[in-house]
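User: My instructor asked us to take a sequence, write out its structure as tokens, and then describe one feature of it. I'm not sure where to start. Here is the sequence I was given:
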Amino acid sequence: MFIHFVRRLNRLKYRISYALSVGLVFSIIGLMAVGFGQIDSSKYMSVDKPSDIIWSDTGFLVGTGDDGIRISLVSTRLESVDLFAATFKGADEIHMASTLGPSFTEGNVYANRGDVIFEVSKDGKTVRNFATPSPGSNIAALVFDIEKYWNYNLLAVTYDGSVWEIDENTQVTHIANLGSDVAPNGLMVAPADFGDFSGDILVSLANENKIVSISHIDNSVSVFKEFPGEKPGMMLFNIRLSTLYVSNNGDGSIVKIDQENTEPYFTQIMLVTENEQDGSKSINFIRSTRLGVEITKLASGIVNPDFAGAVFVHDAAFEESLLVPEEEVPELDPRVVLYPILVLAAIGTIIVIWKFRGF
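Assistant: Let's start with the prediction itself. The structure tokens for your sequence are:
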């Protein structure tokens, strides 16, 4: 607990000094993000051509490489990159999702190779063929429902425009078809406080320049929001008190986006869009209420990082991952404590006998 407190104190001291020294400059840089094509970020760790990225108890799970993508574990405590799930090998594109339960085994990871979804145990030692929602059509995105609207099941969208629900027993249910040439990309379940779209599945369609919603009540499809001139991509829920980490494939690294960038938009949905003219990225935050949908553009013209993948990590979870697991803490040999006590007792006995030797 003391070590954890010291870490948090140092983190607080850093934030205070940082804010005092560059607070005004940071605001100016934020306004200039369009011109420079960058956002305020720092390199976290070098990784071989990272793609999709998710969080686990001990660090990041990242798709790495480009010729048969593998899954690597980026340990936050050890600051190392190691192969995870040695028997799994993907294709040229990978999508991953991890489960918090309750129906699925907590901590298991689901990743695709082409049109097949594989189940990977939490420790990476077991890999099994889990489901093939649409044979011949590759997986475009995977996500777990954590809102219960879709029974905590795994949701998938395939490149033929179909959206699927898969339960823990590998039962596959077709939810909707969005069209054969829509280029689905981002996939998520809208949070419970998202206005009229609460609990609906949101799917970004790059070729249609829009996000559509699928009703959790009757599976009907409607247009959520259109983005003229932009291709909507990945969507993530901005968890309160969290930090955004991004896979930068072109630079071979994971980058950390300073929390000050995203903090004003806690509990909103982050959407990354791509400019159809120059390919640069924009970061948008979406808020939906009963009054309508609001879009706030945080930055545009971004060319670095390239957002090959992204994940919000709760600060408490990140700090917890830095602690040494109990099983790695060596047990104290009782003799280490007992022997000094016996020695002191013996010395004390000798002193007493010597002091009263004349009686």
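For the description part of your assignment, you could build on this observation: Residues 2-31 form the longest helix (30 residues). Try explaining in your own words what that tells you about the chain.
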